[in-house]
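Render this sequence as a predicted structure.
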Amino acid sequence: MLNSFEHTAFRLEVRDRYNEPDEAEPLAQYLAGNRDEPAWLGEWLDLVRGATASGRRFARVRVVTVPLTDYTRFGVWCSQFTTAAGEDIRYLPREQADNDGVPKHDYWLFDSRTVVRMNFDDNDTFLGTELISDPAQIVQHNYWRDTAWHRAVRRDDFASQYIGRS
């Protein structure tokens, strides 16, 4: 679906950490002070650039706990590269998300009509996806997207406020 959506692909991320094996070494490098563009993001950056060039849009809201963890700071740092490629990433403090009723599960919303719920275990390991086809649930996920989007802070503003640099 990441290659075939027509207009918009929106992702809501609500976990404080994602146990992705591909991120272990880049995270360690980041924590050691290496700030080179992460090569492991190349395929994603190409996908975003291609979609953007064809007039399609990637957008994402990350719900984060404040104060930020090392993992979250790493994610904010990585997002400078994805935003440069064309993805619009925003950040929403968890307390605000909870007050606004934003869900506690990750999902993709494609073209405002297809929801793919992302499932994780208690160790933050990705388990798989669930396609949601119930129209009422799709409307609810659109509402959550709009709520999160309008409350969230643009990536650069968030980085300046919480990290002090991009």
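Summary. The longest strand covers residues 57-64. Residues 61 and 146 are 10 Å apart (CA to CA).
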